[in-house]
């Protein structure tokens, strides 16, 4: 899978502004980028991509008292000299306990994302867009990239917890948080914190592909609990695609 040169070398003013912000304040929030790039693909591609969230298995590592979520992952290697993305078969995921006091120190293995997700034009567009921001922010690099498909569930009796570990780091270099959809829920405010504890950003993501990016080595983050809105259903959900960028250590 070859990265899109038009995105990777984009001179778009929005992309340049985002890179400048990410370098200096270590996070950015945008409802324009990469949403506009994805929108050009058309509804059919987006519907097929979104439908893969309907087939996520339950995350068996999370105990019931910490909420219910469904999850798949997949990984890619990006080599900048060849401009080449390579899907990897590895579905292991590990976080140090210092980063995740709830599940840190556990070698977890998740079900790999479906081919309909991995081969999607939407995912290719997102990876190219995210890479373009990384290259403007830190320069051309080799990356290990992990994609996490999450569905956080809640009902009348149980809140949904996108970050059951509380305020934390994920243990990566940069983290992209792309909203896929919210269904019958309230809450779920995304919050970013400085090391000293001050909240530097908070917003409830509501639009398709609305995105937050943060330097995970410098900042911490959390998401407030979700409650079902109760308007048309006693069950609610929030679907997210989290894409981690780690500098490759060869």
Sheet having the most strands: 7 strands, antiparallel
pLDDT < 50 runs, ≥5 residues: 1-11
How many E-type strands?
Answer: 14
CATH class: Mainly Beta
List the domain count as a whole number: 1
GO molecular function, one term: dioxygenase activity
Organism: Pseudomonas hamedanensis
Keywords: Dioxygenase, Oxidoreductase
Protein name: 2OG-Fe dioxygenase family protein
Please specify the SSE layout and strand pairing:
Layout: H1 5-8, H2 13-25, E1 27-30, H3 35-39, H4 43-51, E2 68-79, E3 84-88, E4 92-93, E5 108-109, H5 115-118, H6 121-138, E6 143-155, E7 174-183, E8 185-187, E9 189-193, E10 199-204, E11 211-215, E12 220-223, E13 226-228, E14 235-247
Antiparallel strand pairs: 1-11, 2-3, 2-6, 4-5, 6-14, 7-11, 7-14, 8-13, 9-10, 9-12
Question: What keyword list fits this structure?
Answer:
oxidoreductase; 2OG-Fe_dioxygenase; 21% helix; disordered N terminus; dioxygenase; Jelly Rolls; 250 residues; alpha+beta; three-stranded antiparallel sheet; 2OG-Fe dioxygenase family protein
Structure description:
The chain is of the alpha+beta class. The protein has a single domain (5-247), classed as q2cbj1_9rhob like domain (Jelly Rolls). The chain has 6 helices and 14 strands. It has a 7-stranded antiparallel beta sheet, covered by helices on one side. A 3-stranded antiparallel beta sheet has the order 10-9-12, with no helix packed on it. Strand 9 and strand 10 (199-204) form a beta hairpin. Helix 2 crosses helix 6. It starts with a helix and ends with a strand. The model is unreliable at 1-11 (pLDDT under 50).
